[in-house]
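[step 3/7] fold_predict: job queued, chain A
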Amino acid sequence: LAVTSSVDLTTKIWSVESGECLHTLQGHRGEVTSGVFSPDGSLVLTASTDKIAKIWCASSGKCIQTLTGHRWGVISAVFSPDSTLALTASEDR
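[step 4/7] structure written:
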């Protein structure tokens, strides 16, 4: 699987083998600046200029958690090696 994020406010999960889009993740209100899989591939973490990061189920494409608290756009986000924490980076310092 591969994940892409876009200025069209979406993130897509793709099959690398077929090139088919398996899920379009919608819910951000700003450009999606980052999208990454958890180490085990079960989750996707997205970051957006809407000041929010979201955690999604990779198999269903459903949002399972919304992370708020930044005052400026979130430019990057990553999972910890055990997938229990999410680190977000923002322009708000």
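[step 5/7] annotate
The chain has a mean pLDDT of 97.
DSSP finds no helices and nine strands in the chain.
exit 0
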